[in-house]
Amino acid sequence: MKKNENFSQQVKTILLNDWDPIGIKDLPEANDEYDDYVFTVCEMISEGKHESDFYDFLFWVESERICLHVNTEHIKSIAEKLERLTLASSS
Description:
- The protein has 91 residues and is mostly helical.
- 68% of the residues lie in helices and 0% in strands.
- It has four helices and no strands.
- The two termini are 17 Å apart.
- 22% of the residues are buried.
- The model has no long low-confidence stretch (mean pLDDT 93).
């Protein structure tokens, strides 16, 4: 498996299982719900973005795109996971 495919799957897993702002992770038919964001996050990883960049992106998605009340601590924990992928991609 190519490195970028591996990161893509990891990002998808994080967004679906950990982030999941609309609570659909247990619905098999909604498995692709966050796929629109996977490419953007993978691009951010390849550009070496930092936790604050991931935080800003996820905050924007939740507050502006999905129109949810944002749990900032939850987004911070997801941004930290995504930054770890950035660090892993550079090693």
